[in-house]
Amino acid sequence: MAFSHLSHVECPRCGLTHDADTLLNLCSCGSPLLARYDLAGVEKPDGPNSLWRYHQVLPVRDPDTVAAVSMGEGMTPLVNLHRTGQSLGITLLMKDEGLVPTGSFKARGAAVGVARALELGVRGIAMPTNGNAGAAWALYAARAGMRSVIAMPRDAPLITREEVEISGGELVLVDGVISDAGKVIAERLKTEDLFDASTLKEPYRIEGKKTMGYEIAEQLGWRSPDVIVYPTGGGVGLIGIHKALLEMRELGWVTGELPRLVAVQSSGCAPIVKAFESGAETAEFWEDARTIAFGITVPKPIGDFLILDALRETGGTAVAVDDEQILADQAETARLEGVFLCPEGAATISAVRTLRKDGWIADGEEVVVLNTGAGIKYPGIRL
Ligand SMILES: *Cc1c(COP(=O)(O)O)cnc(C)c1O
Ligand SMILES: [Zn+2]
């Protein structure tokens, strides 16, 4: 039995297939690419207590590469938020991604993306980031013996800068938002031997993030919840969870209706909510994007059409919440549940309140929210 059942890489827009054992960025048509597996013969996981238990549906071919790069990321707990759930008349479970190395779920994408890049001969990576992705990729690159060049907005959380610097990564601070950081990286890529690891511009970060979907189903005893609520920036986690659900359905690991997927954004940067509500297939660039939920400040996600597909195909929706409500729910959840959510995670609680109030979430439903990082990564945000 093969360690990885990776068969090829496919374009979700034009359908072109690509050789998975070459270095790939975007498709020739400009779309992000998705990894495909030969699912016949894939068995239910019995591996380590980390995301690598799903190695058969991950792209890394050599177990020694995993051993060299992994820091035990994944298999985070589903924590029952009893009091909040009870007051809303639902079962509310929070998947706590604050517990992975580097304190955000970005470690999942970095672990798998860096391991696969290492296997394919990459010696240095570059990317724009809102902070957490750059921090995770700089640290995992260090572990893999690779160089990293990370560009981030000057206002990104201070701790993420320090994570890049202490790992020996090259930190470039940019005035503006993540799309401005992207322009800096594009220039560097023209002249230097660096692999472009920008969000969805290589096919394997999403493979790491999809494991959140596998874990939720496995932790519920191989079934889906009614609703999964995700704080959406680039949307990689949401597209990844959707991909995992489709793969698990094909594998016969889950049956019946897929959970309704919900994208949560801040009202200060809500291009996906706007596109969803207007029925558009892609998002428009959001001008003057600004929110305290820094990880979801993405004015124009490159995978917008895939995010919108995932919402519509699952009967899901998109919700914008205000920063004041996010801060209120961050405090309320700490007080009621003893959990210090990151602001992006707190936004999912605000969204659940909104959707419960207008009846979109029904009485007694089971809802899983993703706390995508640790609240302690954002000192000073409440002052
Ligand atoms: C990056 C990030 C997000 C958004 O993730 P995407 O998968 O890019 O949508 C949410 N929360 C935190 C804490 C993040 O760092
Ligand atoms: Zn294509």
TrEMBL record:
Transmembrane segments: none annotated. Its cofactor is pyridoxal 5'-phosphate. The keyword Lipoprotein does not apply. Keywords: Lyase, Pyridoxal phosphate. One of its GO terms (molecular function) is L-serine ammonia-lyase activity. One of its GO terms (biological process) is L-threonine catabolic process. Its EC number is 4.2.3.1. PROSITE patterns: DEHYDRATASE_SER_THR (PS00165). PANTHER family: L-THREONINE DEHYDRATASE CATABOLIC TDCB, THREONINE DEHYDRATASE, MITOCHONDRIAL-RELATED. This is Threonine synthase. It comes from Lentzea tibetensis.
